[in-house]
């Protein structure tokens, strides 16, 4: 894993956006894996600004999002489909038919998991996957204890995740308790991974990732086994990190 240390959230967003823009310009037909949550919002804002100012085109880009809440349709402002439309897709020249997110309201949710996994494979896999990390080390919604062999699957959200995500809802009771997520094996199949980490609340997770062992009880630790991971982390996230290990 390569670690790029930056000053703060804004610099992280800037660096991440530059990284993605360069890839999109070099490979206009890239398959991007995208993430939701607070971490990538600044990055998406800069992608939009760049598209408007410099004309970087997403016409041929395909995207696959990591996850979606079960029970929320794309019209629900708390769904990840809605989030992605609002924060990114609506402001680019991307063809929405090429933006894929698991459906949280599919009649047969197991079939939806299989369909999503196959969809990624049929498109040749994800070239660059953007990731955040949960305070408990989750990636996507793969909570501690998830098998490293897992493909796209249904998960029960950890109480700490529900608490962390309650800030996006009116109250904690409204946060769905289940989600559909790319599995750890799905994420590991990405050719390249860009992990963004910002803020003091992620400091502990950053320490475990950098210095801890590879264990299913800390899902992000599997990234140590991936050949091509870049981490962009800010000072608050890396404070106290022993860089040598
Ligand atoms: P956050 O979530 O970006 O809202 O901190 C990251 C995650 O849970 O993966």
Automatic annotation (TrEMBL):
Q: Which UniProt keywords apply?
A: Carbohydrate metabolism, Hydrolase
Any idea which residues are catalytic in this one?
Answer: 67 (proton acceptor), 136 (for ring-opening step), 138 (proton acceptor), 143 (for ring-opening step)
InterPro entries in the record: Glc/Gal-6P_isomerase, Glucosamine6P_isomerase, Glucosamine6P_isomerase_CS, NagB/RpiA_transferase-like
GO terms for cellular component: cytoplasm
| Pathway linked to the protein | Amino-sugar metabolism; N-acetylneuraminate degradation; D-fructose 6-phosphate from N-acetylneuraminate: step 5/5
Q: Where is the Glucosamine/galactosamine-6-phosphate isomerase domain?
A: 9-224
**Family membership:** Belongs to the glucosamine/galactosamine-6-phosphate isomerase family. NagB subfamily.
Write the protein's name. Glucosamine-6-phosphate deaminase
In its UniProt entry, the species of origin is given as Neobacillus thermocopriae
| Lineage, broadest ranks | Bacteria, Bacillati, Bacillota, Bacilli, Bacillales
